[in-house]
Amino acid sequence: MPQQVTVTEHIILHQNMVPKATGQFTRLFNEIVLSAKIISRQVNKAGLVDVLGFTGDTNVQGEEVKKLDEYANRILIHRLARSGVLCAMASEENADIIEIPHGLPQGGYIIIFDPLDGSSNIDVNVNIGTIFSIYRRVSPSSEPLMTSDVLQPGVEQVAAGYILYGSSTMLVFTTGTGVHGFTLDPGVGEFLLSHPNIRIPEQGKIYSVNEGYSQYWDEPTREVVNYFKSSENNHKKPYSARYIGSLVADFHRNLLYGGIFLYPADLRDPKKPAGKLRLLCEANPMAMLVEQAGGMAIDGHKRILEIDPDHLHQRVPLFIGSRDDVKKVQQIYAKYN
Ligand code: AHM
Ligand code: MG
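^ inputs. structure came back:
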């Protein structure tokens, strides 16, 4: 422990390298870290205290809200609002932009988060995660916040990351200078640097997709998945299928081992031709992370990070992972244009 770098130490060291650093980002990050510890503690107690099951409410996505979803959302909103450096927040669980309560100090950052991703796994003790994405306000602080401050393309993110509640709790993030992973040491209650400078292998051996929906896929998606399953691919043998159904866990495994995660467009529901995952709170932060680790993220054709969002809960098809694997997807999709 004495030689190990804590996440706070890491952030302070890197902030000092940024000209005109004011310490605001460090304050925001400290609240993310504290929220992660509080949520992790509650996740670990699931089954012992009454936090499993549903609250009885339905969220903005039309999904039933689990008690732990609601708990994580409440903790994040409460803690982050108190960082004193935010002008707005947005959560997967809230229909609208969340304002900073009157009387609390504000600043120039905006945070967007999915408080507890992979909810279907909560009650069965399978990995879940928290995802976050941070932007700077663009409009002058003397004027009212604009919707366009929150609806920025992913290239404008100043930081992004996730907390994975797994066999251990990990915080993985980027501030634009590589991807770093920290593991929570429960004995001392600190996140310690365990995975410095993560690089995703250029080509993987794993594909991750919910293949149960294959009858609803479009032609290019079928060809893509057949490619990874065939022995005619770059790898010369079929990729292994791995799908947890928790984006954070599926992404984390592929980040470390290499591979591709797909959540394609789904023709089941004509109102949702863009698949299930949300651009702002899921696809963009993961896209920033994967690019910082040397991988790629596209919607089939274009870079996720360059998509101009038009609403808060916009969905997007997502193909993300090792560079060569995602490039292959792009080539296959281009044939169908
Ligand atoms: P959630 O935010 O409601 O938990 O939904 C997102 C999750 C992702 O973690 C995961 O990749 C995906 O939904 C799984 O969806 P499906 O069950 O359709 O495969
Ligand atoms: Mg989610």
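DSSP finds eight helices and 15 strands in the chain. The chain has a mean pLDDT of 91.
thumbs up if we can close this ticket
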